[in-house]
Design a protein that fits this description.
88 residues, mainly alpha, DNA polymerase, domain 1, 68% helix
Length: 88
């Protein structure tokens, strides 16, 4: 993938992460995404983009009750976000 395409995907993901629709999820997901996106590419970026396409109520529930995300492709990402925010 060309560098400008990767930059566009990262900017789009950062926007989606910081404009979720609820201030709490804007903050939780947005702060994490803005920090890690400059280093994401390939499957990691693909996974974050898929995660960002999910509805806020599901993501909020997973963030507050991470056992609910167990068995999904996003369990590790939820755990990583919780660690980022000092919750694990």
């Amino acid at each position: 993938m060309r560098g400008d395409e990767l930059d566009t995907r990262r900017r789009r993901a950062a926007y989606r992460a910081t404009h979720r629709g609820t201030k709490e999820m804007d903050w939780v997901i947005g702060r994490y995404a803005v920090t890690v996106l400059p280093n994401l590419e390939g499957e990691e970026l693909d996974r974050l983009e898929r995660f960002l396409s999910l509805p806020d109520p599901d993501l909020q529930q997973w963030f507050h009750s991470p056992h609910l995300a167990a068995g999904t492709e996003f369990a590790g990402l939820v755990a990583e976000m919780r660690r980022f925010h000092g919750l694990e």
